[in-house]
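User: My instructor asked us to take a sequence, write out its structure as tokens, and then describe one feature of it. I'm not sure where to start. Here is the sequence I was given:
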Amino acid sequence: MKLLNICALLFFLGTNLCAQNTVGTIVNTQNSYNGYTLFCPVNGFQTYLIDNCGRVINSWTSIHLPGLSAELIPDGSIVRNGRILNSAMSIGGMAGIVEKFNWDGFRQWHYRCSGPDSTSHHDFEVLPNGNVLLLVVYGKNISDAVALGKDTSSFSDLTLFTESILEIEPIGIDSGRVVWRWDVWNHLVQDFDSTKTNFGVVSDHPEKMNINYKGSSSNRDWLHANSIDYNPELDQIVIGFRNTNEFWVIDHSTTIAEAASSSGGRYGKGGDILYRWGNPAACNRGTTADQKLFGPHDISWVPAGYPGEGNFMIFNNGDLTGISSVEEFAAPIDSAGFYSNPGTLAYGPAVADWSHSEPTNTLFNSQRLSSAQRMPNGNTLICSGFAGYFSEVDSLGNLVWAYRNPVSGTGILTQGNPVNSGVNSIFSIKRYGPDYPAFNGRTLTAANPLELNFNLDNCQISYIDVNKDENFSLEIFPNPAEDMIFINNKTINSTYLIYNLQGIILGKEFLSEIGNHAIDLSDFLPGTYLIVNSKNPKEAAIFIHKH
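Assistant: Let's start with the prediction itself. The structure tokens for your sequence are:
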């Protein structure tokens, strides 16, 4: 079929850097992964979804400041932590409530987890069955800690905080049921008091935590978990700890009783630690010279099907060095999910498989907050939280996209004005591709960017000459069309995006089968449009709608 003799907009292929941009999208290149980025500013009540040009696709408003994470789930809803002040549990990253809002911003469900001796905090994970894993910190009386061998000679608090995980099954609009629980308190060891039941040689028990370990903090918040992720293939959970400078993997297949013990579950160890990495000194299997992580955040698995699938990725804040990095590495694990026994040594590997740092970039280096996420094309999306700076780099470390959060505690920032780090902080960000199920059947209309006096020159439109048939290969008919157009889909599980000539996505169709498929255009205004396979830009076509 002859294509129309016009120039057509593809999508977001701007390649120039606008030096005057201080907030919003600063760099945008054709090598960036095209998608939508979700974030909630630490000092704002809104959660935003933006495109790569920083234009707002959707937003949600809560009465609670974030506490601190948000996630877009496949049905188009967002789940977010909210902050409820709790003087009894004063810690950084306090939450206290988890909320679910539908695409249109209506709060469908919430669950309060804040009391006189406990609060949810930092991060959560939505499981495939819709249940929610919450990080929950609670206080234990110092006498309970002494009963488990706590050395209080240099400890002045009357309470010791311990970390737990609750799995909540949502019920109704404001309730939930605890269906699974795991608690650090059930997996402690110590070599201080031989009269206690958990006395032992700490280095002989890497599956347990030394209650007397003093990491980055000697106060009651000695662990400070700040991130959680779930691996559905392995049925494992990973938790990151800022103050012990490491992360642990535990078994989720256990019952509540097994999770409180050292036996049972898919891996036979109950709720004991299956694998730990980052700081061998925490289990007396190394010294400070062996430490790899320093105040880390956002431990996660690289998802199946992505470059590096199954590897761990973490933002290593670099508390002692002042230099942050993103680390990716493969754990010593077999196909069944069992980790290699290191004998008397620390768990491997000794070095990361991939690492990215920018020692001289003050925006990139962040001693608090922050996140990292692998993209389907192999790029890595990074949030340097303190400065509210987002960057995307390719596998060689080349910058392909950058954004600065324009939402501060005193209001929306103006393009071109200098920004002081710390006023626009972000805990973490997540990007979702155009074929993510949350976008099925939705018109993704891009509004203006958030920043005042915005400048989109760095997202300038690239035009494609389609005089020749070989430029675009998608077969469509009829053209011009009236209310209905048919496309010849040549690959299974394809997602087609429909753009207007301003580069705004007006429609999205997911086709699971090969062959001719009809697309309803009855809601489209008369005009010229571009339809593109999200995974293959050359599989595209221009059409006119005459209705």
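For the description part of your assignment, you could build on this observation: The domain at 17-457 is CATH 2.120.10.30 (Neuraminidase). Try explaining in your own words what that tells you about the chain.
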